């Protein structure tokens, strides 16, 4: 599904290109104090707290003859607005609404494109009067920002979100964020040296694709192999063994470790392979923490299960150590496999597809906020110093991993324990399972609130 489109419009020299650069995260558009630097439409891909859209920087709107250069530039701007899903009408809040701004406002009022009025250069309340003046345009509540300093961007996000959410956003999945049914599962196999990673991959693909042996550290490069499991494509990446960083002194091993960590970054699901003859060690927990920190779905597989001693005790011990050592995510799946015999591989791959589905999940806005209200009613936020922390609403800004923004007042004082309560409740009540979740707390700035 193509990205929604946002066009920035306004008279010359109000900061359109500066805002464009801010949203795309790069200095793609030329910026100068002189008006009229931008002539053609410039496009880029923007991201705002996970909200992705195509952004168009347009020339300054001027009231000139259509045959002149400014007139032809205006035609480009008008075309950009017609094609856009939303128009950002930018004005200079320090100067207030000028006669040309009023003309642009009249044009935008009769257009079919939704408009968000944005007062730029409002840093340190310098443009408060100009922002208030914008109400007379009749285009709704203005948003005060400073494109140069990045102030007010949360307010811009709040204004854009309901206009850019695609039809069907209340459905559990969004097609462009769900893995394509034909797309391969990106699966990385990681672990300490000699845990049997290459042997497991060979057993999966049914051939001696990778060199194996009793020596630790045979694998140096991360090797990617295309495979098919029960008619479903899988891209398996075998990686070098990861030792404790302080023990890695050889330059080649350092490069191999870095390559393995890059494989984690590129994966959707990561299998941390343990050696049943050695159990769970501190280095395994460190590797697991890195996978979670990178936002990847994690599975634990205990290899060499065919030769494990006291298997039941070993399994329960690993589960208990994970619960204690990985407090941020409870219930990470633990499976048993044998790379030698192939036992447990089907269950492992099936679990990988299942956890990828949870990792890719998009929760509908209505369902999400119904859960949010119930969670707050069941366990209200604390009131440090006798002052309430008010949580207003939540929205999911992306998936893979599921990422959310909570808006409210005094959220900087919300204890980490309450944030964990929300995340654990979300996993339990919304079926997100043991996958990494991201939750950002935002307190939108109100330029008219004198109490802040």
UniProtKB/TrEMBL annotation:
Record keyword Signal present: no
Protein name, UniProt field: GTPase Der
Role, per record: GTPase that plays an essential role in the late steps of ribosome biogenesis.
Keywords attached to this entry: GTP-binding, Hydrolase, Nucleotide-binding, Repeat, Ribosome biogenesis
Family: Belongs to the TRAFAC class TrmE-Era-EngA-EngB-Septin-like GTPase superfamily. EngA (Der) GTPase family.
SUPFAM superfamilies: P-loop containing nucleoside triphosphate hydrolases
InterPro entries reported for this sequence: G_ENGA, GTP-bd, GTPase_Der, KH_dom-like, KH_dom-like_a/b, P-loop_NTPase, Small_GTP-bd
Protein's UniProt keywords contain Signal: no
Pfam families on file: KH_dom-like, MMR_HSR1
Species this protein is from: Sphingomonas anseongensis
Positions that bind GTP 2: 191-198, 238-242, 303-306
Residues involved in GTP 1 binding: 10-17, 57-61, 120-123
Residue ranges of domain EngA-type G in the record: 4-168, 185-360
One of the record's GO molecular function terms: hydrolase activity
HAMAP family: GTPase_Der
Subunit structure: Associates with the 50S ribosomal subunit.
């Amino acid at each position: 599904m193509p990205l929604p489109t946002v066009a920035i419009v306004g008279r010359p020299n109000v900061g359109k290109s500066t805002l464009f650069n801010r949203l795309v995260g790069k200095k793609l558009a030329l910026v100068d104090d002189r008006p009229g630097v931008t002539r053609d439409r410039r496009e880029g891909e923007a991201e705002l707290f996970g909200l992705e859209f195509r952004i168009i920087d347009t020339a300054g709107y001027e009231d000139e003859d259509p045959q002149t250069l400014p007139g032809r530039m205006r035609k480009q701007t008008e075309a950009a607005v017609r094609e856009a899903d939303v128009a950002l009408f930018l004005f200079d809040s320090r100067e207030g609404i000028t006669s040309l701004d009023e003309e642009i406002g009249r044009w935008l009022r009769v257009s079919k494109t939704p408009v968000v009025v944005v007062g730029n250069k409002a840093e340190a309340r310098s443009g408060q009067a100009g922002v208030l003046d914008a109400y007379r345009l009749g285009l709704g509540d203005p948003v005060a920002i400073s494109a140069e300093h990045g102030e007010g961007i949360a307010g811009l996000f709040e204004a854009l979100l309901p206009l850019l959410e695609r039809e069907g956003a209340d459905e559990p999945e969004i097609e462009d964020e769900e893995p394509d049914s034909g797309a391969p599962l990106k699966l990385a196999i990681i672990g300490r040296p000699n845990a049997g990673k290459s042997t497991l991959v060979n057993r999966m693909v049914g051939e001696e694709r990778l060199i194996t042996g009793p020596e630790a550290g045979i694998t140096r490069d991360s090797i990617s192999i295309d495979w098919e499991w029960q008619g479903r494509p899988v891209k398996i990446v075998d990686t070098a063994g990861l030792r404790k960083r302080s023990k890695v002194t050889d330059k080649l091993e350092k490069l191999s470790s870095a390559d393995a960590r890059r494989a984690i970054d590129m994966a959707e699901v990561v299998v941390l392979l343990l050696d049943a003859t050695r159990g769970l060690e501190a280095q395994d927990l460190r590797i697991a923490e890195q996978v979670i920190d990178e936002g990847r779905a994690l599975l634990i597989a205990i290899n060499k299960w065919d030769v494990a001693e006291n298997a039941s005790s070993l399994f329960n011990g690993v589960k208990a150590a994970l619960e204690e050592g990985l407090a941020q995510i409870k219930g990470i799946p633990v499976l048993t496999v044998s790379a030698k015999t192939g036992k447990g591989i089907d269950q492992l791959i099936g679990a990988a597809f299942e956890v990828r589905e949870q990792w890719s999940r998009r929760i509908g806005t209505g369902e999400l906020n119904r859960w949010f209200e119930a969670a707050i009613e069941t366990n209200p936020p604390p009131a440090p110093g006798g002052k309430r922390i008010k949580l207003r609403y939540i929205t999911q800004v992306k998936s893979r991993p599921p990422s959310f923004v909570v808006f409210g007042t005094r959220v900087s004082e919300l204890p980490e324990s309450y944030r964990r309560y929300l995340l654990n409740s979300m996993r339990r009540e919304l079926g997100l399972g043991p996958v990494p979740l991201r939750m950002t707390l935002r307190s939108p700035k109100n330029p008219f609130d004198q109490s802040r």
